[in-house]
Amino acid sequence: MMGSRSFSSDDGAADVNFAAKASSRDIRPSQGSALVARHIAAGSPAINRNGNQPANAPPLNHDFDNQVRPQGVRVDWGADEGGTPVVPGAVTFSSGAFGSVPVGTTATLTVTVTVSVAPVTFSSSSNPTAPFAKTGDTCSGSTVPVAGTCTFTVTYSPTTTATSNGSFTVTDTATGSPQTVALSGTGVETVAFTSATLGTLVGGGPLVPRTLLFGNRAGLVSSTVTITIGGTAPVTFGTSTVANTTAGSTAFSKGADTCSGTTRNPGTTCTVTINFVGPAGIALRTGTLTVPSNGSGNPHILNLLGT
After folding, report:
1. What domain range is 182 assigned to?
2. Are residues 124 and 33 in the same domain?
3. Most exposed of 3, 41, 44, 225 (fewest Cβ within 10 Å)?
4. Number of structural domains, the chain?
């Protein structure tokens, strides 16, 4: 019965015999045909043809499943729109926090990307600014399946005892692209002169070295300096020494020392006592406390100054 019907393709081609197109889904009834139209697969040329509906088509706000399609004049006439919609994938990133890193060293962190919902294609990633750097990327140029992972390798090289924040971006086919990956880290000293029982500790950077100011003293005084171990690994100390840098002076000398020859864990302390004999009259005296260790920034020097 239906083999003799004539149909026309929705892309404007001439009428074709139904028997020859029995397996095709990109067809619609010819103008004026009373035949009920059949479903046409989404994505076929019959989708979204403006002003090309047959005269006996249903109202243009419904498809042939009689479902409302409020698309203005561009109605998906004849389309079977019950298929699964295309859903973009999703990505999650592991933490970009380095924590505490000794000044003068470089720490490496792997940021892992996990894909969910649908496969994700990664196209590119940017580079963070110093003190961070991106040294590896297994994501860009690849398509990662659901539950799959790829990685970015990032380094942090602190030069000061301060907290740094940075980021890099990732461009892909996932929801929210491009995504921003936050980076953070704090530079710490592995061996730091943190307090003194007498005098004032000042400085602590490349422009102003750490210095203990005894002030104006008469006779013998002593100051016990506390040394705090930072970083993430134990520190082993060599033998601490005190030297006088004013010609002919013996004003500074070392007293009790709980640091030399010991190994200390991060977060612990030890002490070195420095003796100072104030000179008669107004005269400046200088010296140094040198604390050797296997920590970064070795040797650790504290300048001494008194009058």
Report:
1. 90-187
2. no
3. 3
4. 3
19 by DSSP, 3-state: which? Answer: helix
CA angle 267/271/275 to nearest 5° reads 155
Q: Mean pLDDT in each 10-residue stretch from start to end of the chain (307 residues)? A: 40 36 39 42 44 48 50 45 68 96 91 97 97 98 97 95 95 97 93 94 77 93 95 92 95 97 95 94 92 90 95
Residue where one domain finishes, among candidates 46, 66, 85: 85
User: Tokens 């907290």 sit at which residue?
Assistant: 163
CA distance 271 to 256: 8
Residues 6+ apart with CB under 8 A from 88: 117, 118, 120, 173, 174, 175
- Give, in order, the Cα–Cα distances in Å from 108 to each of 136, 199, 233: 11, 40, 15
Indicate whether 195 and 289 sit together in one domain: yes
User: Please, are residues 132 and 156 in contact by the beta-carbon 8 Å criterion?
Assistant: yes
